[in-house]
Amino acid sequence: MSELPLPPVTRQLGASGIEVSPIAWGMWRLAENGRTAAEAARLVHAALDAGITFLDTADIYGFNGSGGFGDAEALLGEVLAAEPGLRSRMVLATKGGIMPPLPYDQSAAYLRKAIDASLTRLKTDSVELWQIHRPDILAHPQEVARVLDDAVAAGKIRTLGVSNFTQAQTAALNHFLGHKLVSTQPEISPLRIDCFENGELDQAMMLDLTPLAWSPLGGGRLAKPESARDNAICAALDKVAGEAGVSRSVAAYSWLMVHPAGIIPIIGSQQVERIAEGAAALKVRWTRTDWYAVLVAARGVPLP
């Protein structure tokens, strides 16, 4: 039975020329539980030492409904201030465009402030990737594009991406941008396979967007399956995980990475061991038969 190719050691971020690791680490929960800068630094080192150089955060990370906006960025900024040498070892991505208590705000005035505020919290002059976190339906994409292009021209941002955008929203923004998008960040996991069949990944390949998969483990449901469908997916993953000698989580990451769009799963764990083990996904071999077995279990019905 023919095996599918292993993922490359590095991937290019869109057409930017920026090389990133084929798996990323996300900091959604970095600022939880009173984590100190020293504790956060251990996690950053765990990722970098495992070869995970692509780090993803957002200004909303840390917000608990009443406070904490910007806390994850600020904590990472403390880590970088204490160890400036770490900055050159990472490709840093962040996101903005959500402003509590409003749902979303991508007005020109707000976006300019949000970009500058993120850089201040992160204690860096620029980030390699800045993404609009969720689309603001009340913002004209031409106005949004103008602000983002200005930020790139000013050297504050190297590349641009979107998160949770529809295909039409992605196409509209990209149309008006001078500096074209390099990434898109939807929710993708063996439990959420919409993008495999609804055209999102096809658009990503057409526009040369690198897909970044948030919640690649289905928000923890792959560890604790809740339904017959969940259990069927886990069984299909476990077959390959057992043969490769890796955890189910690692098998799930590798399942996404096989796709020709070059999906980069974002590890959400804030535990050193779970971050480090993610690198093993680069060595997991899939056959077409095993890969499609996971997809069929996720669909819940046979393929046509």
UniProtKB/TrEMBL annotation:
Transmembrane spans: none
Listed InterPro entries: AKR, AKR_Detox_Biosynth, Aldo/ket_reductase_CS, NAD(P)_OxRdtase_dom_sf, NADP_OxRdtase_dom
Boundaries of every NADP-dependent oxidoreductase domain copy: 22-291
Source species: Novosphingobium ginsenosidimutans
Cellular compartments per GO CC: cytosol
A molecular function (GO) term: oxidoreductase activity
Designated name of the protein: Aldo/keto reductase
Superkingdom field: Bacteria
